[in-house]
């Protein structure tokens, strides 16, 4: 990869971050990195629909020439199974 | 012992109706109070606030909240606050509330807080008007937090909790890129907690961070952002201190 290519990837990641914040999805809390020549999205989001929406936008912004990989998780909406004791 | 349930950053959009309610309905058996640490909505709109309100309306425990930056995004924080208040939520900003739980007076001081960074790596109140106002806003939030904690002590609260959206300490940000720490919180909030005195500080905002931290003055800090705790809420069993609190404040004053 040329230095120019790396710089362009950095700007594209920045543009995706801006779009995720600006669009209806208002997502500011995930990690987007270049990893092994692909783009990796990771972090935890509230719902599966939210995750799929993020991936659709990421595919539009980045997926034309580079592989987009997802390790996004959906947060549990269950009650905790135990408390933390704070003596 | 006081049972504190807490969660932040639930980011409920209009498609999220009922998402957390089944878990919240179990609070009757597990907690004495539910704290909401901000970013309750996605864009800070009234319809989203109504979704949040429906999630917590009529719960068997008191609900105390601060708003987060997402809840300010549509410039409707007053309307969002009103919708939550109508559902019985006590929304704090620069003030506090007290609860009597099994003969123990519990005080909660709340502010959204703001950012600026941590000791030695923080924004300064210098230069352009925008930059000065950025730091002054955080300073005002911190000052209100300190003042409220002191008032709660004077009001006889045996347990005091500081509730913010932004983080008072960098400990709970581990996992976030270090370059963005200055946008995730401010040491001014921790200083206010230590000087005002508290038994627990609860915050959200840092989705990639960790749950546990502590202020320089020894106050336990918990990041309850839902992506971090990976549950509908966390529960903390806080022992009621035997002696009257405020050791850090008196220490600071006598130095």
TrEMBL record, chain A:
Pfam families: BON. Gene3D superfamilies: 3.40.1520.20. Residues 14-67 form the BON domain. It comes from the Bacteria. This is BON domain-containing protein. The lineage of its organism: Bacteria, Bacillati, Actinomycetota, Actinomycetes, Kitasatosporales.
From TrEMBL, chain B:
GO terms for cellular component: membrane. GO terms for biological process: lipid A biosynthetic process. It holds the Pfam family Metallophos. InterPro entries: Calcineurin-like_PHP, Metallo-depent_PP-like, Metallophosphoesterase_sf, UCP008292. GO terms for molecular function: metal ion binding; UDP-2,3-diacylglucosamine hydrolase activity. Residues 2-207 form the Calcineurin-like phosphoesterase domain. It comes from the Bacteria. Keywords: Hydrolase, Metal-binding. PANTHER family: PHOSPHODIESTERASE YAEI, TRANSMEMBRANE PROTEIN WITH METALLOPHOSPHOESTERASE DOMAIN-RELATED. This is Metallophosphoesterase.
């Amino acid at each position: 990869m040329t230095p120019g290519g790396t710089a362009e990837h950095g700007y594209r990641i920045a543009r995706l971050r801006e779009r995720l914040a600006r669009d209806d999805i208002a997502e500011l809390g995930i990690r987007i990195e270049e990893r092994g020549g692909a783009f990796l999205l990771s972090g935890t989001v509230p719902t599966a629909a939210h995750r799929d929406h993020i991936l659709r936008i990421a595919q539009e912004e980045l997926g034309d020439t580079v592989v987009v990989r997802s390790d996004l998780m959906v947060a549990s909406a269950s009650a905790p199974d135990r408390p933390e004791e704070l003596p | 012992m006081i049972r504190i349930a807490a969660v932040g950053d639930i980011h409920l959009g209009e498609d999220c109706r009922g998402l957390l309610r089944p878990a919240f309905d179990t609070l009757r058996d597990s907690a004495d109070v539910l704290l909401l640490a901000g970013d309750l909505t996605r864009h800070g709109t009234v319809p989203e606030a109504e979704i949040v309100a429906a999630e917590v309306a009529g719960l068997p425990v008191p609900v105390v909240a601060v708003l987060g930056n997402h809840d300010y995004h549509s410039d409707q924080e007053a309307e969002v606050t009103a919708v939550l208040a109508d559902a019985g939520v006590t929304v704090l900003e620069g003030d506090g509330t007290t609860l009597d739980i099994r003969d123990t007076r519990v005080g909660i001081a709340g502010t959204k807080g703001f950012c600026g960074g941590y000791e030695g790596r923080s924004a300064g109140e210098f230069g352009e008007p925008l930059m000065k106002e950025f730091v002054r806003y955080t300073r005002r939030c911190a000052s209100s937090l300190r003042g409220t904690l002191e008032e709660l002590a004077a009001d006889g609260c045996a347990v005091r909790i500081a509730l913010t959206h932004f983080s008072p300490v960098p400990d709970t940000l581990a996992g976030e890129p270090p370059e963005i720490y200055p946008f995730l919180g401010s040491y001014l909030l921790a200083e206010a907690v230590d000087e005002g005195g508290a038994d627990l500080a609860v915050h959200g905002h840092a989705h990639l961070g960790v749950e546990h931290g502590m202020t320089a003055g020894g106050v336990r800090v918990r990041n309850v952002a839902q992506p971090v705790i990976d549950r509908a809420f966390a529960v903390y069993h806080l022992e009621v201190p035997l002696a009257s609190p405020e050791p850090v404040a008196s220490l600071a004053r006598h130095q």
